[in-house]
């Protein structure tokens, strides 16, 4: 490569960095876009909160299946060969949403969307890091990490906000949001086609599913970090599945835009907390995260018992910020425990715990609402998460390296 061509290469990778960030963000946004629309499906087809949680659980199952089977394949085939299909799979999910509105169709659409996200997250994060380091040789990874966080959690927050605004102020609320996101994702897929590849494809690789490897001597701390991740993602699951129903039912607020804003505020707070606390020692991130998360859970529970919309929003922001900071600290903890050659596998174990948390507690909460008032069910949910956090907080914060 000639000296004169180096700026051109750096420029192409720099532009490609932002194109991948766009595709990552809009695809993650679509993955959460149905959140404020569930109340419309419930009114149209007459199903209850437990069916909503089943639909949400189908998404998490799709992510887990895809994480095991395809989340690591781009290490062999190249990033673009996984990213483009991942985006297009979510376009297919949008087609299913447009074609049918019954519960079985929603289950299939959300499962397909989960398959896409499982393919996308690790691959897009790795691609962003590689594009950044090529465009800015010698730079730290901080910029890539922050943009990946913003695209991931920020995208998840923007999806319900955009869908809620479209549902509230544009006609045909069960079609227009999906058509808009389809167009945005197709542009994203086209953008990724134009991005430089950063991995040389390896021929004749024997396929194997993703493994989960944890150092034996660090399993106690690893499991504590996993339990914390379970509680953190249970909060995310609450605000992308049942929270819009709480807003419209318990809090008597029928605005779809408001329901979307609640989810946006939670995930926006999570992304912002990760950015603001990024320079703190890992222990400090974890302590701040656990404190904010516990406080937020208490405030949300009080808000539902009162009821109070503003307390509900405040509690959601506190809980989201705490979950974001705590999970970032958990990722740093696991990375510090794992050997360099098994970091991806150790992180896979942490994400499995997180997505179990995204599914099982919220599914139990949805089931509980069939037999008891929502207020009582949410109180039990809050107590369960608080017990988990209190039980693991000391282990995680004392066992984690200071930095």
Automatic annotation (TrEMBL):
Q: Name the UniProt key words of this record, in alphabetical order.
A: Cell membrane, Membrane, Transmembrane, Transmembrane helix, Transport
Q: Does the UniProt entry include the keyword Transmembrane?
A: yes
Subcellular location(s) of the protein: Cell membrane
Just give the chief location class: membrane
Q: Which GO terms describe its molecular function?
A: transmembrane transporter activity
Pfam families this protein is in? MFS_1 (PF07690)
List the InterPro entries.
MFS, MFS_dom, MFS_trans_sf, MFS_Transporters
Please report the record's description of how this protein sits within the membrane.
Multi-pass membrane protein
Location of the Major facilitator superfamily (MFS) profile domain: 1-398
| Top-level taxon of the source organism | Bacteria
Can you list the GO cellular component terms from the UniProt entry? plasma membrane
Q: Which residues cross the membrane?
A: 15-41, 47-70, 82-101, 107-126, 146-167, 179-199, 220-243, 255-276, 288-305, 311-335, 347-368, 374-393
Q: Could you tell me which PANTHER family the record lists for this protein?
A: MAJOR FACILITATOR SUPERFAMILY MFS_1 (PTHR23517:SF13), RESISTANCE PROTEIN MDTM, PUTATIVE-RELATED-RELATED (PTHR23517)
Protein name (Swiss-Prot/TrEMBL):
MFS transporter
Q: Which organism is it from?
A: Amycolatopsis acidicola
């Amino acid at each position: 490569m000639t000296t004169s061509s180096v700026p051109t290469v750096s420029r192409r990778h720099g532009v490609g960095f932002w194109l991948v960030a766009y595709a990552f963000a809009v695809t993650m946004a679509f993955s959460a876009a149905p959140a404020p629309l569930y109340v419309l499906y419930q009114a149209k087809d007459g199903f209850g909160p437990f069916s909503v949680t089943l639909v949400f659980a189908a998404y998490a199952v799709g992510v887990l299946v895809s994480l095991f089977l395809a989340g690591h394949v781009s290490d062999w085939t190249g990033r673009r060969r996984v990213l483009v299909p991942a985006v297009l799979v979510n376009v297919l999910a949008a087609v299913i949403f447009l074609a049918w509105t019954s519960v079985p169709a929603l289950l299939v659409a959300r499962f397909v969307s989960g398959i896409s996200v499982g393919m996308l997250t690790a691959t897009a994060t790795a691609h962003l890091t590689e594009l950044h380091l090529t465009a800015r040789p010698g730079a730290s990874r901080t910029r890539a990490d922050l943009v990946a966080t913003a695209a991931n959690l920020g995208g998840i927050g923007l999806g319900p906000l955009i869908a809620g605004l479209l549902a509230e102020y544009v006609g045909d609320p069960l079609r227009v949001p999906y058509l808009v996101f389809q167009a945005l994702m197709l542009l994203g897929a086209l953008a990724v086609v134009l991005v430089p590849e950063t991995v040389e494809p390896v021929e004749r690789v024997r396929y194997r599913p993703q493994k989960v490897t944890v150092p034996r001597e660090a399993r106690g701390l690893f499991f504590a970090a996993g339990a914390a991740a379970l509680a953190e993602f249970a909060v995310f699951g609450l605000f992308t599945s049942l929270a819009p129903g709480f807003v419209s039912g318990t809090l008597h607020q029928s605005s779809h835009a408001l329901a979307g804003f609640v989810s946006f505020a939670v995930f926006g707070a999570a992304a912002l907390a990760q950015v603001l606390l990024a320079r703190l020692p890992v222990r400090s991130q974890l302590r701040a995260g656990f404190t904010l998360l516990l406080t937020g859970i208490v405030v949300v529970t009080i808000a539902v018992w009162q009821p109070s919309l503003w307390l509900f929003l405040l509690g959601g922001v506190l809980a989201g910020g705490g979950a974001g900071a705590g999970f970032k600290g958990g990722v740093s903890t696991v990375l510090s425990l794992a050997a360099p050659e098994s970091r991806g596998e150790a992180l896979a174990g942490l994400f499995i715990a997180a997505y179990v948390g995204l599914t099982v507690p919220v599914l139990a909460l949805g089931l509980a609402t069939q037999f008891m008032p929502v207020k009582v069910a949410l109180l039990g949910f809050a107590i369960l998460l608080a017990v988990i956090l209190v039980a693991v907080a000391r282990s995680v914060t004392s066992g984690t390296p200071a930095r």
